[in-house]
Structure formats: C-alpha cells, structure tokens
Design brief:
The chain is an alpha+beta fold. The chain is built from 5 helices and 3 strands, in the order ααβααββα. Helix 2 packs across helix 4. It is globular and about 30 Å long. The two termini are 15 Å apart. The relative contact order is 0.21.
Length: 84
Amino acid sequence: MSWVKLDAALFSHPKVLRAGNEATGAWIRMLAYCAAYLTDGGIDADTALSLAGRQKVIDRRVTARLLDRDGDVLRVHDYLAHNP
C-alpha cells in the first residue's frame, strides 16, 4: 500500500485557496495516483483529465502553481520534495 503526505495546513495555503475546492479535490486525487503508480509526480494529460473531470480544473491547478506542464505530462509541483 502506498501513501501520500498532505500538510495539515493544506486547507489554508494561499495556492490552495486560489485554486478552490473542486481543483484541490482533483489535485489530491492526482497526488494519490502518483503515489499508487510510483510516477514520481508525473501524470499524462489524459489521466489528469480523467481525474480532474474538466480541463478548467487542471488549468486552475497550473495557474495556482500546484501542477507544472512538461510537454504532454503534468507534474505535481515539488512532488518528490514532499513524497520521497
């Protein structure tokens, strides 16, 4: 079984507040996906869209700088710094 770390103050972080609840829920699903499949924080665009439900949700995560675009892959910002 794999785990992902979440800071207890996540709910009040400025990036999370800017992105909103829907985008944050999708981001947590993406974190869990990365942990479950050992992707080191990378998610292909199709899987990210499946997890997020709508492109607008992904765009909000990118704008909030919680996801980074890397070609056709999205990367959870600083994933390995917090989930070694």
